[in-house]
């Protein structure tokens, strides 16, 4: 079973966290974290689903969120 990457301190996924947002999307909790290493981690913690991308431009952020937020558990 997968772990929620946005809350797993020992995993190191959120090391150097710059910002974090918690939202409800389609009735499901979504946690988004952006780090100093330009990683964007998006987790659906109730469903144990995690998505990750390295962001190099604002367009990358938009593309990542547009794709990931179509996820339907």
Number of domains: 1
Give the fraction of residues assigned to helices: 10-25%
**Assembly context of the chains:** single chain
Described by strand count, sense and barrel closure, the largest sheet is: 4 strands, antiparallel
Number of strands: 4
Low-confidence stretches: none
* Percentage beta strand: 35-45%
**SS-based class:** alpha+beta
Distance between the termini: 15 Å
Radius of gyration: 12 Å
Overall, the morphology is: globular
Give the ordered list of helices and strands: EEEEH
Mean of the pLDDT scores? 93
Q: Strands of the largest sheet, in order across it? A: 1-2-3-4
Tell me the number of helical segments per DSSP (H or I, 4 or more residues long): 1
Compact description:
The chain has 73 residues and is an alpha+beta fold. Helices cover 15% and strands 40% of the residues.
């Amino acid at each position: 079973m997968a772990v929620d990457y946005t809350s797993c301190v020992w995993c190191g996924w959120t090391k150097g966290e710059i910002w974090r947002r918690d939202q409800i999307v389609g009735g499901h909790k979504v946690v988004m974290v952006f780090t100093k290493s330009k990683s964007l981690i998006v987790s659906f913690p109730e469903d144990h689903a995690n998505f990750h991308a390295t962001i190099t431009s604002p367009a990358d952020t938009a593309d990542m969120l547009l794709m990931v937020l179509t996820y339907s558990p």
